[in-house]
Amino acid sequence: xxKVLYPGSFDPITKGHMNIVDIASSMFDxxxxxxxxxxxxxxxxxxxxxxxxxxxxxxxxxxxVKVITSxxxxxxxxxxxxxxxxxxxIRGVTDLDYxxxxxxxxxxxxxxKVNTICLFADSKYQFLSSSLVKEVFKLDKDIRKxxxxxxxxxxxxxxxx
Length: 161
Description:
The protein has helices at 15-27, 48-58, 74-80, 93-109, 130-138, 149-160; strands spanning 3-8, 30-36, 65-70, 85-90, 115-120. By secondary structure, the protein is of the alpha/beta class. The chain has one domain (3-160): HUPs (Rossmann fold), CATH 3.40.50. It has a five-stranded parallel sheet, sandwiched between helices. The protein is globular, with a radius of gyration of 15 Å.
């Protein structure tokens, strides 16, 4: 089976992330979406469990998508799940510089077992990030063109608690 890991914080998952998952699932037998904890981010909008459940709900009809969570490094998660590669979404030149360095380190620390594949989301999502979505949401602006309706509803419910 040809498996690939798509690691990220997905807080929240955006239409850009979803576009990358859709592209990857057309290329691979299985896409393992890994909700990872980023220790440099001190606060999160959704809990880890909420993010996993939301992504599982979004992909419940796509048998090629598996959703997991881990506190381990993305390389370790890829190896544990028998993924020969990791998907990274690229928005622009700034992302590319960082991703090249990360890809080289990940390949090195995995003893050349895990490669990185960079995918570009459709042009309408190139600017999109979870941080931007959260900022716009906090300004009480409409984010429905950036996130799936299920994500929008979950964000609204979370604020009303």
